[in-house]
Amino acid sequence: MSRRKKSPPGGKVRAAAATAGALPPARSASPIAASAPTSRSPLRPAWIAGCVVLVAIAVAGVFWAQRNRAPPATPPTPVAAAAGPAKYVGGAKCATCHAKESAAWKGSDHDLAMQLADAQSVLGDFANAKFT
Known about the structure:
Blueprint: H1 11-19, H2 31-35, H3 44-66, H4 79-83, H5 91-95, H6 99-105, H7 109-113
């Protein structure tokens, strides 16, 4: 279906007046309005088709790359089920594999923060302190 522009009322009269020496219709002073297209670009459908083709190629490439992947022979066994429930084994057990990290941690602020609160580990003076 083609669309035709509607001619303004009295369009034939204006055309006859223009040929008889009358002034042409006034143009807009704005360069933007003068250069604005009045219809869609004829290349727009080609751009849309090109984008659709590129997306289709990308999707096909992903599926093609995935086609040779074989599923794992046996599903992995969950570690928690095989070893039982998790529990803390202590810093000495960790230090057997992580000696460098353990040496850096000993005596650090983080190490001292984990001490039990007693007269030796609490450094603040809380004498006569009241808490509300």
